[in-house]
Amino acid sequence: MEGGIHTSTDTSAFKECLSLTWRNPYVLRLAFSAGIGGLLFGYDTGVISGALLYIRDDFKSVDRKTVLQESIVSMAVAGAIIGAAVGGWMNDRFGRRRVLLIADFLFFVGAVIMASAPGAALLIVGRIFVGLGVGMASMTSPLYISEASPAKIRGALVSTNGFLITGGQFLSYLINLAFTKAPGTWRWMVGVAGFPALLQFILMLLLPESPRWLYRKGREEAAKVILRKIYPAHEVEQEIQDLKESVEAEIKEEGSSEKMNIIKLLKTKAVRRGLTAGVGLQVFQQFVGINTVMYYSPTIVQLAGFASNRTALLLSLVTAGLNAFGSIVSIYFIDRTGRKKLLIISLTGVVVSLGVLSGVFHETTTHSPMVSRVETSHFSNITCPDYSSALNSGAWDCMTCLKASSPDCGFCSSPTNKLLPGACLISNDTVKDMCHKETRLWYTRGCPSKYGWLALIGLALYIIFFSPGMGSVPWIMNSEIYPLRFRGLCGGIAATANWISNLIVGQSFLSLKEAIGTSWTFLIFGVISVMALLFVIIYVPETKGLPIEEIEKMLEGRALHYKFWEKGNKPHEKSQAT
Q1: Burial class (CB in 10 A: 0-12, 13-18, 19+), 233
Q2: What angle do CA 400, 406, 412 make, to 5 degrees?
Q3: pTM to 2 decimals?
Q4: Residues 44, 97: contact at Cβ < 8 Å?
Q5: C-alpha atoms less than 13 angstroms from C-alpha of 492 in its C-beta half-sphere
Q6: d(Cα 513, Cα 520) in Å, to the nearest integer?
């Protein structure tokens, strides 16, 4: 409840959430219908990573230009920045339900444009439309779920949005694999995204507006009707009373229930401290590198030495499955262990995993197979020109071959063992087919390596640790940490910060990888993860089981929150005593 006290949140929340299946399915219906916005978010993140492999094959200009690849990935993020920024204002003005309907429409239109795009330019336009929809849905879905959830299971229900994000990513890899042999490959991959958007549009037409938004707008009777469907009979009247007192206090403080501006927001201590924690979490969620892994996981798998597109997609499916599993773990532990402890465990594991990945890629790049003049001369008239003219060709290895650029070159492995010296040849489809006909492997994005499986283990560990904590908690915290009158605006600010960070990381990863190497890139993410861990320890409060009004009181009382290991929170304990 908004103002109720729950002494057994940590032990019963998950069971309570499961019991809703038969005791009050209406609440689950609200949560999962709104959570489809998370599914759209996740599907778009995952699908482009696989589709990009085939877009590069279809559009040679994309294959040649790293900036076009990054633009196809990142323009959706640019659209999401605008969608999240506008979505915060729209949420407070028009309501959560209407914003989700608009998001679904934009996503559907974007999916149709992408599927029919004749070239890279229109494909990028479609990505922008999809991004607008994803940006709006990314901050509206958890907000809607939070405001339609009893306090003691709020974390678990908002975690369903995180589960559907990771579920969407897993689904996207399944769809990618399903269409690898179909005519049009990537067009089916991106076009299928329109169906969940259409489904959510229909479901949201049948669902009500957020009861708290209705009450805030003076539509008390409509809000009470919905609250009576959400809460048990013995709790609902107290919930209505608490909500009434909360809104009246806000109106008294503001002078008007509609008056709201940035200056007032920054002058409010609880909001300012909430924004520090909320925006910080959203920024660090991206800068520890998660969407580098999700956007480019097939590419990373190929960098680890797995040549086939299909193999790269299949192995990436494993990471997406682990991500979905991690979000299920989050649903169980979020109201049991607490937000802050989960974040600290998560980031500690992320730091270790990124250290492993950095080490593995260092070994991969410094111990790649040599280029053999005998193997290369086996293929007549297609030798890489840079290799032929090099004075130190005897020192060339696979990585040196792949860096040649006039024209691009590829590495054709030895037919007996991919780790033995191979041939450095001109990179095109004809040469690729010649290499494959001799039962050799063809490499253009990474080199054969005996450490490839270690890279997969590092990726798996990264996902296992990231998903339950840093994957879910930032969205949960931002759905509950702000006062009602500022919730839409602050949620929009935090989501916008997330998407701007997402854009920076997505747009720079391939360029950074080419400039300093994959190993150093992951090492940078590791250093940022250490900074994120310190930030969580100092600035992020524990909100487990606290009614939303109590969270506001706690933030007003203190700015720093070191003692994450203590059970309970002072404001909460005080309210129990009274």
Answers
A1: exposed
A2: 50
A3: 0.70
A4: no
A5: 21
A6: 8
